[in-house]
Design goal:
Blueprint (H helix, E strand, L loop, with lengths): L57 E2 L1 E3 L12 E8 L2 E3 L3 E3 L7 E8 L9 E10 L4 E6 L4 E3 L11 E3 L5 E9 L6 E11 L5 E3 L5 E5 L1
Length: 209
Amino acid sequence: IDRAIPIQKTTVNITVVEGANNISGNNSATDGTTDNPTDGTTDNPTDGTQDTDVQTCVPATSVNAQGNPIADSQACFTNILRIGEKRQPNHRRLTYAEAQTLNLSVEAIIDPAHLGQAADILLLAGRSTTLKDALYVRDEQTWNQWDEQLSSLPSAQYYPKLPEKIEVFIFEDDLSVAPGEYTVFVGYRLEEDDTIVYNGNEPLHFWVS
């Protein structure tokens, strides 16, 4: 996401659901962003136009401080993409007009083992076009380009005690001026041991044409 496009909200809310597994320990966190980049015209995203209210909480990916996978996470994440007030499926290709009323957030259900622990909320976004691939991370106020080091991931928000459920508001505004493919990762990092739990199995993903 281009730093010229301000992110409007970064509030965060997380719930506890049984049965979420971890998937990958890749610490580059670049699924769908740096391989085969696209300007929104060559991939095969879903092109739904109806309001889609079914929410799927996808099992989280968990890694340790070195980026190695951790098994049996029970956290899960739900991506929420809306055009105006209408819910849309993930992997949606947005037209210029649709991207003018975009609302993005991710809901997380915390691993029961992590409830009450101190943690940082993490936001990482990739934007790919035919000319450039870039990864950005968000601190409490701004987006900055990421050096792809886990140790440098800044905190977007601090929780002294993780609640059961978190909704992270990412963007609510006009994104039509910045076409490309977007992949957004949201997660939390435990203060105790730097374990990172995030939506690596199914990041928020869409195209702006």
